[in-house]
Each structure stands twice: as structure tokens, then as C-alpha cells.
Amino acid sequence: MTFVVFLTVLILGIVLGLPIAWALIACGIALMLHLDYFNAQIIAQNMILGTDNFILLAIPFFILAGELMNRGGLSRRIIEVAMAAFGHVSGGLGYVAICASLIMASLSGSAIADSAALAAILIPMMKLGNYPEGSSGGLLAAGGVIAPVIPPSIALVVFGAIANVSISGLFMAAIVPGTLMALSLVLAWRFVSRGGGFQTLERKSRAEVLRALWVALPALVLPVVVIGGLRIGIFTPTEAAVIAAVYAMLVGAFVYGELTLRSFYEGLVEAGKTSAVVMFLIGTSMVSAWLITIANLPTQVIAFLEPFMDSPQMLVGMIVVLTLLLGMVLDFTPLSLILMPIVIPLGKAAGIDLVYFGVVFTIAGALGMLTPPVGNVLNVVAGVGKVRLDRIMVGVLPFLFAEIAVLALLVIFPQIVTLPLELLR
Predict the structure, then answer these.
(1) Are the C-beta atoms of residues 136 and 395 closer than 8 Å to each other?
(2) Which of 80, 99, 266, 337 has a 20 to 30 A CA-CA distance from 19?
(3) Are residues 243 and 146 in the same domain?
């Protein structure tokens, strides 16, 4: 009955158009009333305690790093390197988009920021090259959702904080799956673009490619610094986020000279707004998470899924399907925060490696940003690239299926995630 109350209030809040944060508070209040345990102070206390976590400081700094990269010219230099290397190939701008998506994902960790930056630069060029608008926008959107997977990933920071598992371990474990997602897009784009008759860019000489690489080198060093520092143990994920933000600021201001005081201030404001939304969602989710624990909901769900508890793969598969379905009506952040307090105890009870589980769960949640009717990344690409949303919804399907195929491989063969992690250890 407790689970029914929670689910009914949540669905009702979403249907009525209530902001997700307030819907989560409503779920908390409903559970309190159902348990005859109402206390307004508990709501405020859990909201504050939910965000009072040193690890979560990484979120605003990674968001700020992404904003400064876009405003300081780092993102544009990365795209120019990819264009110099692949622009002359048939359908080359598609490969440029995939390559740039992978590199930028290792810098910002934000699907929205990466997709917007890539769409603003590449979609006008793809239109001039006779690339289909739907497929072009769909490819950029599918490339954008690699960002929550490849480190530094804001989503993995949140999962690590809630599940109390190593964030550095999550980062290392996500590298191979994120790379596989990019490779699946290469195969899908090769299939979609064959016989396309696209215009190609002039082939760059080796000297021009090297020059573009040299110009972009300060931007390309950032993921090496962040991931290398985490791997060696020089700094924590939170400190890595600060280093990323400061590095992006210094390179944008003094190396590329594009980050002015005005654009720096605008970046701070945008990062502040985005961080406030994310942190408020985290705070409100902790109210529901605390009451979910008090109401013993995880135990009830475990009892419901008991037939699958002896088969971790089957359980992970069911959770992945549930996450993909809910991703059609919920944005990535609230979806993750609603499900994590329920599915993490399930994973523990079934003996699933939580680092592996965190990577798979994050990929499933990220793919929800490609599915209508919510599909935030689709909306961003459509708005920035001035492409009709319905065309992008159709165009993204081959790339969405390719990334779902990677997710299915990870469920069937967990060793893809766990084996590289064991080797790194």
C-alpha cells in the first residue's frame, strides 16, 4: 500500500504539471500522512542534509567548467580539430560530430551544454552540405548523451554520493562503455549516410591538421589532467571539478583570449542557475529517499522482484527496461533521484557490483533524454539548430537503437565494465 501511495502521488503530480521537485515533496508529505508521521521540520532538515555533502560540490564546478569551455573557445577548437581530421570524408561532418561529442563529454559532463555547442556550430554546416536535417540533429543529440557517461560525469557523482561508492571507480568504469557508445554511433552513421551524396570539406594537409591539433592542445589536455589526476590519486573528484573550472577559465581568458569579464560573469550566472535547479532536486529527492527508507519500500520492492533476485542479470535487465520507459516521461536528473533510493538497495540485496550497476543505470537514464515526449536533448538540438522537432525524433531512432544495443551488451556481459576496472586496480 505504501508503494501505491508513493507512485500515485508522483504520477498525479506529473500529470498535473507540478515541477518535479515539488512533486517529490508532495510524495514525501503523502508518505508522512500515510505513516501518521507528519512533521514539517523533517522536510526542511532532510532537504538541507541531502545537499550538505562535500562530494556534491563537484556538480556546480563541473557545470561551471562546461559553461566556461563554451564561452572561452575550448569547445570550438575541439570541433575544428575533428573537422580537420574527418571533414574531407564522405559524410565526414557526422564523424566530426561523434568525435567532438566524445572529446567534449570528457570535459564537461553535461549533455545539454555539449549538444547545444555542437548543434550551434555543426548543424548550419551540415545543412549547407546537404545532410538530412533529421539525421544530423538526431546524431548530435545521440552524441550529446555520451556526456553523462564519460568522466567527469555529474550523474556518476550523484550516484556515488547516494550509493556511497567510489566516484573515482565509477569514472574509470565508465570509460569503456562511453567509448563503445561512440563506436556504435560511428557504425549507425555509416549505415545511415551511405550513398548520401554529401558535400565534403577540402582535405586538409598534414601540416594544417597538426596546426589545428596544436591550437586545440590546451583544451585537449584538460581530460588528461582530470582523469589522470583521479587515477593517480592526486586529487578527489570535487577537487578535480575545481581544477577543471579554473583551467577552463585560464585557457579561455589567457590562451584563446575569448573569455571576457562579461562572458565570465554570464557563465557564472548560468552555472549558478543550473546548479541551483540540480541541488534543489537533490534536496527534495532526499526527503522522499528518507521516507522511502522509513516506510521500508525497498524491502517491499525486493519482495515483489524476489523471483528475479537469484539472477542479477535478469534483475539489472528489468531495472534498465523500467528506467528506459520512465525516461520517456521524466527528465534524467529527477528520474535518477526518484529511482536511486529504490534500485540501489535492490542491487545490494542481489549482490550486484554497485560500480557496474551505477554505470549501466546512468546509461539507461541518459538514453531517456533521447525519447519523446520529454527528450530534453532533442528539444535543445531542435531549438539551437532550428530544425523541426518531429524530424529529429525520427532521425535519432537509428542512433538510439545503436546505443540501446550497447546497453544490452553491458547487461549480458558485465565483464565489459568490470574487467577493465580490475585491470586498472
Answers:
(1) yes
(2) 266
(3) yes
pLDDT band at 196 (very low <50, low <70, confident <90, very high): low
Cα distance between residue 87 and residue 203, in whole Å? 7
Q: Cβ(151)–Cβ(169) under 8 Å?
A: no
User: What grid cell was written down for 306?
Assistant: 524476489
Number of independent structural domains in the chain: 2
Task: Quote the pLDDT of residue 344.
Answer: 85
How far is the CA of 370 from the CAs of 163, 314, 319, in angstroms? 26, 24, 18
In which domain, by residue range, is 20 found?
Answer: 1-38
Q: At what angle do helices 261-294 and 20-34 cross, to 10 degrees?
A: 20
**Cα–Cα distance list, 383 to 110, 126, 135, 153, 255 (Å):** 17, 16, 15, 24, 31
Side chain identity at 155, as an amino acid letter? A
User: Do the beta carbons of residue 118 and residue 79 sit within 8 Å?
Assistant: yes
List the single range of 52-61, 70-79, 187-196, 352-361 with lowest mean pLDDT.
Answer: 52-61
- CA distances 408 to 235, 314, 324, 404, Å, are 34, 11, 12, 6
Length of the chain: 425
Q: Residue 136 domain-assigned?
A: yes
The mean pLDDT of the chain is: 81
Nearest Cα to Cα of residue 339 among 158, 117, 98: 158
* Cα–Cα distance, 288 to 22 (Å, whole number): 11
pLDDT at position 424 over 60: no
Q: Is the pTM of this model over 0.85?
A: no
Burial of 205 (0-12, 13-18, 19+ CB in 10 A): exposed
Three-class DSSP labels, 145-162: CCCCCCCCCHHHHHHHHH
Whether 351 and 387 map to the same domain: the answer is yes
Say if residues 280 and 333 touch (Cβ distance below 8 Å): no
Same domain, yes or no, for 30 and 62? no
Distance (Å) of CA 20 to CA 12, 78, 323, 365: 11, 35, 16, 16
Residue type for position 193? S
DSSP 214-272: HHHHHHHHHHHHHHHHHHHTSS-HHHHHHHHHHHHHHIIIIIS----HHHHHHHHHHHH
Q: Is the model's pLDDT at 293 over the cut of 80?
A: no
**What's the chain's Rg over C-alpha atoms?**
21
pLDDT digits (tens, 9 = 90+) for 9-23: 877 876 787 776 777
Query: Residue 238 above 60 pLDDT?
Result: yes
What is the per-residue pLDDT for 84? 82
